[in-house]
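Thread: heme C complex, take 2
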Amino acid sequence: MRSLLIFLGASALTACSVQEQMPDPSRQDVEHARLAAAELQHELQARLMEAMQSEGVEAAIGVCADEAQLISARVSEATNMDVGRTSFSLRNPDNAPDIWERQQMAAFRAAMSQGETPQSMEYSEVVETENGMMFRWMKPIPMGDLCQTCHGTNVAPEVLDLIHELYPEDHATGYEPGQLRGAFTVSRPVINPG
Ligand code: HEC
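Output below.
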């Protein structure tokens, strides 16, 4: 609960009077969001490991490039929530964050710089959008050791070449383990507020 308090503080900077009247996120939505993000993480990681072990790094890049979006779409459909990944420094521009997502990632990054562990953080809120009330949830994705092959500070030249071929505007290298690589982001319309 400690991290939640930190984020309430951080989001108060952006809160306006309309947002203050929003209902709290339902426990059920928060639990569904956690499960949905865990499912996405599990599926992506399983495919990545399988491809890296059986076919090597270059094949694994192809797997990520071809399948990451499909896996996100499948998990979104199965969980009835919009589930994806985003970052400040993108590989795939389709994963670009909106303003709300940028604010939460900035809060995650600030809390991590104060020593908070990314595993202990998440943030959820009900916000008013042009499409009505939305439940939104985010959780940090920290850089791990395995990720260095494709996002680290010392990516092999042949790996970089392939990444640049697939993603000419890649900004997603140069990360150290433990840094904030990005975040899971989940949303769904609030059907019955309150
Ligand atoms: C084999 C190379 C490879 C490895 C290893 C890898 N990634 Fe990626 N990563 C990619 C590719 C390719 C994409 C773009 C996927 C897409 O098109 O959505 C990507 C996208 C992402 C994104 C979405 C944001 C963006 O930049 O588009 C995040 C977050 C991410 N990776 C985190 C990680 C983490 C955390 C690890 C380690 C657990 C990891 N990646 C390991 C290749 C890799």
